[in-house]
Amino acid sequence: MTTKPILVLGSTGKTGRRVLSRLRQHGHEVRAASRKGPTRFDWNDRNTWEPALEGAGAAYLVDSQQSDAAASVRSFAELAVATGVERLVLLSARDWVVPDGEEKLPAERAVRESGAQWTILKPTWFAQNFSEDPFYRGQLLDGEFVMSTGDGVEPFVDAEDIADVAVAALTEDGHGGQAYELTGPRLLSLGDVVGEIARATGRDIAYRPVPPEEYTAYALAKGLPEDYVALLNLLNGWIEERRFATLADGVQRALGREPRDFADYVRRTAATGVWH
Ligand SMILES: NC(=O)c1ccc[n+]([C@@H]2O[C@H](COP(=O)([O-])OP(=O)(O)OC[C@H]3O[C@@H](n4cnc5c(N)ncnc54)[C@H](OP(=O)(O)O)[C@@H]3O)[C@@H](O)[C@H]2O)c1
């Protein structure tokens, strides 16, 4: 076990928060970093990079989601290695292509080429989008879930599993040089998702599938920015065409156990009251 602090970027986000709390529970010294985190870290302000890295032995990387994310990850990974970081774990994604045509892969390549021991996490859609993303959660609270994914299906992955894999890669041997594709154990349509959440909460939640143009109008009327709506339509289109409708074995390979089922996520989350 590394005795040096472990830097967690994106420490306020869906996975970073969970990685942080697990590392703390396991007794590791951690540094929680993001724009709003206790250690201020901003991908757009390089003055914040070195103080965040100081003395760290490993780092969990969540990129900026901006068009220059890969270049920033490359510079940051180089700096990390120069300051003594030995392990880098990157949160990436399944091999999608972002709207401007730039692949996600350049950030992965940057980490692979950094000289650190690297592990890359390639998750599919997080289950937690339905409870921790304000737009999706808001729809569920309103009692009507609108989506343009047709009859497509997706193997939603539990962020708890992503965090388990991240912590294993940050703290245990045997994960260096591995890219783990992470999915849940079951393919679900968005209608299935809404049905499971409605049943678990005892609430009446309608599922309204719409074509992309109608989804655009709906999301814009809800106040989402135009470029974000375009991204959502792209992602929804990929679900509709079943681009990622396959189960992967990353959780099994990394942890030697099956991934959590979507029903576990729904049961746990319904009990917190976030859908009421
Ligand atoms: N959600 C999914 O279904 C999904 C699926 C596959 C892959 N991914 C990938 O996972 C990554 C994170 O997505 P997410 O849904 O987990 O997002 P999230 O929950 O919003 O977390 C993003 C984190 O990054 C931090 N952050 C954002 N901009 C930053 C900046 N300029 N400088 C420093 N920190 C910044 C945020 O904290 P502050 O606001 O405090 O800075 C937050 O902690 C993305 O790269 C995404 O492509 C997501």
Observed structural traits:
276 residues, alpha/beta, Rossmann fold, UDP-galactose 4-epimerase, domain 1, 2 domains, 7-stranded parallel β-sheet, two-stranded parallel sheet, binds NADP nicotinamide-adenine-dinucleotide phosphate
Give the helices and strands, then pairings:
Blueprint: E1 6-9, H1 16-25, E2 30-34, E3 39-40, H2 49-53, E4 58-62, H3 69-82, E5 87-91, H4 105-112, E6 117-123, H5 129-132, H6 134-142, E7 144-147, E8 153-154, H7 159-171, E9 178-182, E10 188-189, H8 190-201, E11 206-209, H9 212-221, H10 226-240, H11 250-255, H12 262-272
Helix pairs in contact: 1-7, 3-4, 8-12, 9-10
This protein binds NADP nicotinamide-adenine-dinucleotide phosphate.
Beta-sheet strand percentage? 15-25%
Instruction: Give start-end ranges of low-pLDDT stretches.
Output: none
How would you name the CATH homologous superfamily of the largest domain? NAD(P)-binding Rossmann-like Domain
Placed side by side, the strands forming the largest sheet appear as 3-2-1-4-5-6-9
Global Rg: 19 Å
Q: What is the global morphology?
A: globular
Task: Tell me the CATH topology of the largest domain.
Answer: Rossmann fold
**Helix residue percentage:** 40-55%
Largest sheet: 7 strands, parallel
How would you explain this protein's 3D organization?
42% of the residues lie in helices and 16% in strands. It is of the alpha/beta class. It has two domains: 6-123, 3-Layer(aba) Sandwich (Rossmann fold); 127-156 and 184-245 and 261-276, UDP-galactose 4-epimerase, domain 1 (Alpha-Beta Complex), CATH 3.90.25. The strands form three sheets. A seven-stranded parallel sheet has the order 3-2-1-4-5-6-9, sandwiched between helices. A two-stranded parallel ribbon has the order 7-11. Helix 4 links the parallel strand 5 and strand 6 (117-123). It is globular and about 55 Å long. Bound molecules: NADP nicotinamide-adenine-dinucleotide phosphate (NAP).
